[in-house]
Write a structure and sequence with these properties.
Length: about 170
């Protein structure tokens, strides 16, 4: 059976997982993921995975287009876990494309999802740093770490807030 015609959504998911784990070269990954994306059980799923393949192989412009297509095709209703990942991945791609303000806005609006945890806040700190907003970046990083501290929480929160107070 080819990657073009998996028999079920479960089989498609297995093929995607196997491809990601394969360690194949960049060109092969994109070619094979393109075929899998075309056979996806929903266009949003295919666009998301193809965007990820482009993203991980350094083709940010193509990744941006696929991520935007995944969102437009309704990934948030089809697969909330992937939709949470999409925010992080797409924002990271936008940052790499020097569209930092878009990345910051996307990450600030990211709802919490267990599958991404604090990742949106970490990527927000990176985007803020890329924008030359070091105090805001440090504050975002501290605020994501603060809840994990066994003590000093009140002081750490106050110090973080002071970084961006005028």
């Amino acid at each position: 059976m080819s990657e073009h015609n998996p028999r079920s959504a479960g089989e498609w998911e297995e093929r995607v997982e196997t491809l990601w784990a394969s360690g194949c070269g960049d060109e092969e990954l994109v070619v094979r993921m393109t075929a899998l994306a075309a056979a996806a059980p929903h266009p949003a799923l295919g666009a998301f995975e193809l965007g990820g393949a482009f993203d991980s192989t350094g083709h940010e412009a193509e990744a941006d287009a696929e991520y935007a297509r995944a969102a437009a095709e309704g990934l948030s209703t089809v697969d909330p876990s992937r939709a949470a990942q999409l925010v992080v991945q797409h924002a990271s791609t936008l940052r790499n494309l020097d569209r930092v303000d878009e990345a910051i806005a996307m990450l600030r609006e990211a709802p919490f999802h267990a599958d991404t945890g604090a990742a949106p806040a970490v990527f927000l700190a990176l985007a803020l740093h890329s924008a030359g907003r070091s105090d805001e970046a440090l504050r975002a990083a501290i605020e994501v770490i603060e809840p994990t501290l066994p003590r000093y929480n009140r002081s750490v929160r106050a110090y973080a807030a002071a970084l961006t107070e005028e």
